[in-house]
Amino acid sequence: MRFMFFKKLYRTDKRWFYVVSLFVLSQLFIFYKRGVTFAPFYNFGMYSEPILPAEEYHVYQVWVDGQMLNFNNFSPKKAEKILLPVYCFSDQPCKEKFFKDVIVRLLPKAGIHPVEERFLAHKSEADFLNEYRGYLGRTLNVDSQSIEIKNAVYRFRSGRLHFTSYTSLTSAVCP
Prior knowledge:
Blueprint: H1 4-12, H2 14-33, E1 56-64, E2 67-68, H3 76-90, H4 92-106, H5 116-119, H6 125-140, E3 147-157, E4 160-167
Antiparallel strand pairs: 1-2, 1-3, 3-4
Helix pairs in contact: 1-2, 3-6
């Protein structure tokens, strides 16, 4: 009765038997190592604990001509198109940290000289907002006079989110 599935699979299709066996063996190896992540959705430990809310949440708000954009009025695709450049710009400090901590350390070992200009695009907030205003105008078909992006900080207390403050656009917390 034990391993009946494997016996039937071996008799019917040897190729699938080897594929499934390889998969099972690799998962056993991953479980044994615990540090290797090959396919995390197969690892039970990832889902075996409750996910607690974070203490702090950062939400980007885009203000056009003094009015905050309501992303409920946009499709998810359009909302992502509007916010993706903001996320990319605000992540600049983390990208710089990754470049200095990882890329500078690993590429020379492969015989490649890391050139910062190829990996990072240094942009000031004023330059970004100027370019973003044009981008947003083309995306929303609006001729806007002023654009403002706020990074709103919310804290989770007593089962609810409470607004705390606004922080700078590039105050991302790097992992």
